[in-house]
Amino acid sequence: MFNSLIKKGRGAQQNINNRFFELSQEVRDDFLEYCEKEGEVADNDKTQYLEVYPKTIVNKVNSPDVGMSYSMNMYQGCEHGCIYCYARNSHEYWGYSAGLDFERRILVKKNAPQLLEDFLKKKSWKAHPIVMSGNTDCYQPAEKQFEITRKCLELFLKYKHPVSIITKNALVLRDLDLLKALQKDQLISVNISITSLSEQTRRILEPRTATIKKRLETVKILSENNIPVNVMLAPIIPSINSHEILPLAKAVSEAGALSIAHTIVRLNGAIGQVFTDWIQKKMPDRAEKVLNQIKDCHNGNLNDSRFATRMKGEGNIAKQVSDLMQLAKLKYFKDKVMPTLNTNLHESCKDGQLKLF
């Protein structure tokens, strides 16, 4: 069957239907067979960068269990291609698929720096940490070309405003000069996502992300420069990376991380179909086992949308993961603490300069 061929270098293996569209497309075997015989390419699999023009860039986060109050995203869609990514669903609101479109059609907000500066200068705004990458990674491959994240960091420094970063890309080290300058006033923290110590697992789960070696080096370099780092061991997927919690915690602690956190994978919305198709093609020998164990964590479903329980899960497997995380924190992070970001300087810097009186 031609439609069962593995797409290398991508997470999703198909473009599933957009739930908001009445019509759908199907790639048929006879079409793929025709392309094969004629020597034609059915799908060039290239990434497209599409500029969009949002009117705002800082979002209020109303979910009580995500650990942030405000976030901003310079890009929609993410070329990293992490198969489990919860942000895939948001691509449907733009008229695209949560499958391959999410990885190949990247929406670029070139006006993000101007929108951010306008926001930071508002008289009504009281400083509160803003998280870059609440949805999609601000250091994904597009950032190397557009440098929107760097421009926004320059503004956070200019206005002495606290900012936190979530990423799994070593490209964050490109901006080490800005991070060090922000840290002088305790205005920065970085969250690095590391889901496995196995390169084979990393390549399957997160095909276009930085290698595990580079991510551990990133934690080390940031920590050596006194930039506080939290590592997200997330998501924990039963029978894929659930056995790695203790060695992961040990490795990131030795690299200098000050804390760790985790979530249990949950396949909300369209992600359930994307993930199921992926694991049946990439890991057919354990597909049913993994899917059933994920369901065991969410009361018989692939997803649980209830606040408080959706991130940590329920049941025996979820409890085992939680117990291992507690043990890891006691063993490797007992005397470590993430500092609180400084919100006291911004008010006197709203014109871009620190007032002396």
Summarize the structure.
InterPro entries: Elp3/MiaA/NifB-like_rSAM, MJ0683-like, rSAM, rSAM_sf. GO terms for molecular function: catalytic activity; iron-sulfur cluster binding; metal ion binding. The protein is α/β, with parallel strands linked by helices and 357 residues long.
Helix fraction, binned, reads 25-40%
The best one-word shape is globular
Instruction: Please tell me how large the radius of gyration is.
Output: 21 Å
Strand content: 5-15%
Query: Distance between the terminal alpha carbons, to the nearest Å?
Result: 74 Å
Identify low-pLDDT runs.
none
Strand line-up across the major sheet:
2-3-6-7-8-9-10
- Major β-sheet, in short? 7 strands, mixed
Helix count?
12
What is the name of the CATH superfamily of the domain at 44-263? Aldolase class I
SSE order: HEEEEHEHEHHEHEHHEHEHHH
* CATH-derived topology of the domain at 44-263: TIM Barrel
Q: What's the total number of strands?
A: 10
CATH architecture heading of the domain at 44-263: Alpha-Beta Barrel
The average pLDDT score comes to 93
CATH class of the domain at 44-263: Alpha Beta
**Which structural class matches the secondary elements?**
alpha/beta
